[in-house]
């Protein structure tokens, strides 16, 4: 498995030094705005103010608000990937594979809480199942199923486990059906445990 976090869309060139630090600074500022005020608060001007730079710097870096939104999603996706590839257990290495599987689902649902609208937009923009980031998640879940001793068609089972984490579905269940995110996370954990249970009888 590739151990380098991959992009939500195509692999982007590796940035070096100041460019990478400045990009992270801007994206961290945008993430804080989402956390504090929601997606609508993320404007080029607001990000510039939050990061302490001129608005032109944000436009030069991302081109437009749409470019900023996609970069923000990519930033969050890479952070999640880094957490499950290298972070502390139970999400990262070192825990039982089933515990890691459950932690992965909970982390993915928690990400929808903060950036659901952005994720839904990305899912509908033609980068849903073919995106490198999606393939990383698929391989990760498949690997954990194998390590847990799960019997069956692991690629298909991994896809079945990822399906309930779809941002569009989670947002529908949460906002329109009124299911709390914790309930969705618990249900996903139950599904993951049921899928792996036969190997532990």
UniProtKB/TrEMBL annotation:
Pfam families: TetR_N
Taxonomy, superkingdom: Bacteria
MF (Gene Ontology): DNA-binding transcription factor activity; transcription cis-regulatory region binding
Coiled coil, from the record: none
Ranges annotated as spanning the membrane: none
HTH tetR-type domain sequence ranges: 20-80
Xref: SUPFAM superfamilies: Homeodomain-like (SSF46689)
DNA-binding positions: 43-62
Keywords, sorted A to Z: DNA-binding
Protein's UniProt name: TetR family transcriptional regulator
Protein species of origin: Rhodococcus coprophilus
